[in-house]
């Protein structure tokens, strides 16, 4: 396909259509207030990307429980006290012409005690001296995801996206390595997927008919099994439980190195699935106009822009103006990011990424 195909609209099962094929990936930036409220820096970032031509903008990961925090200065959505800041963010995105979603997050066993987190592992043996969540506590987490989605709807967001990647709680429960439970949330693949599916089904019941649900899935590390995740994704797509699947790949071009799908592209394992009305997209080193267009040929309905969007907040507009646009080479200086409008908090966060910021 040509770059111009990236600017064709894309309908979703619920709510308004995406005006093009660009989605802003959920970008951790550690710039909220310590109580989880959206800061002036969050608002400024959203103002910048809202003018950038994206069809749908996801917020950074917002924790659904105070104890589920995974890093300092994380955006919160676990209290009605967060509504004012969230409402302002949703309003800004809508004014810019895009759809909006809050990424819902709970750190699970990776919750950070030094910033107020309470580690919540699926299994007893994951962390020394920390007991697994009881069945009742798992149900509480489930219900807090659903309550957070309702809060996002009240704030004016078009939808939510569940963070089911990188070993956070939904991903953790999927993993046979990190989940050896014997209740209905552990054991079989069906049981390990139960928490995610109950959250999705609960959000669909609690929120309006136009409310959109996305699901971010990663397939690497944390004991995850590609074949199992493909089967789970196949069921979710077949049942049309979500509006879009967001494949969080470190590299959208990576090849499967072992197992039943050896030699295939990781992306094709999921894009080859029947998807009915669900849309499928990917993140992973999408730094140029040509690469974004190639991914439509590779079976994606849309692309998620991460690092390229940090480097250039209006990446879709750059691509629209120049079909051969390529992102500035990494690393870049802090001054480059500062001049572009990134806050010092965001820049400090990016210093933790290998080869992104050169001082």
UniProtKB/TrEMBL annotation:
Transmembrane segments: none annotated. Pfam families: Oxidored_FMN. The keyword Oxidoreductase applies. Signal peptide: none annotated. Gene3D superfamilies: Aldolase class I. Keywords: Flavoprotein, Oxidoreductase. Coiled coil: none annotated. InterPro entries: Aldolase_TIM (IPR013785), NADH_flavin_oxidoreductase (IPR051799), OxRdtase_FMN_N (IPR001155). This is NADH oxidase.
């Amino acid at each position: 396909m040509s770059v111009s195909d990236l600017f064709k609209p894309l309908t979703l099962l619920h709510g308004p259509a995406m005006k093009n094929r660009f989605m802003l990936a959920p970008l951790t930036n550690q710039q909220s207030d310590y109580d989880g409220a959206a800061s002036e820096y969050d608002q400024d970032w959203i103002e910048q990307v809202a003018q950038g031509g994206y069809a749908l903008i996801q917020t950074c990961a917002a924790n659904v429980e105070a104890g589920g925090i995974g890093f300092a200065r994380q955006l919160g959505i676990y209290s009605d006290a967060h509504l004012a800041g969230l409402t302002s963010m949703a309003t800004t995105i809508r004014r810019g012409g895009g759809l909006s979603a809050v990424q819902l997050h709970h750190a699970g066993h990776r919750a950070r005690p030094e910033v107020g987190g309470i580690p919540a592992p699926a299994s007893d043996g994951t962390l020394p001296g920390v007991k697994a969540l009881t069945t009742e506590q798992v149900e509480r987490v489930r219900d807090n995801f659903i309550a957070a989605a309702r809060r996002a709807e009240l704030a004016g967001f078009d939808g939510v996206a569940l963070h089911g990647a990188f070993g956070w709680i939904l991903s953790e429960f999927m993993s046979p390595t990190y989940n050896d439970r014997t209740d209905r949330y552990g054991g079989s693949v069906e049981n390990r997927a139960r928490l995610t599916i109950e959250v999705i089904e609960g959000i669909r019941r609690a929120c309006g008919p136009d409310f959109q649900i996305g699901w971010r899935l990663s397939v690497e590390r944390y004991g995850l099994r590609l074949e199992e995740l493909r089967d789970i994704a196949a069921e979710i797509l077949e049942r049309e439980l979500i509006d879009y699947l967001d494949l969080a790949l470190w590299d959208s071009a990576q090849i499967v190195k072992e197992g039943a799908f050896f030699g295939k592209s990781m992306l094709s394992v999921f894009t080859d699935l029947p998807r009915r009305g669900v849309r499928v997209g990917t993140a992973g080193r999408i730094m140029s106009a040509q690469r974004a267009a190639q991914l439509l040929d590779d079976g994606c309905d849309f692309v998620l822009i991460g690092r390229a969007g940090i480097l250039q907040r209006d990446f879709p507009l750059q691509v629209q103006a120049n079909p051969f646009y390529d992102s500035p080479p990494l690393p870049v200086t802090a001054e480059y990011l500062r001049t572009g409008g990134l806050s010092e908090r965001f820049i400090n966060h990016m210093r933790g990424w290998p080869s992104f910021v050169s001082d």
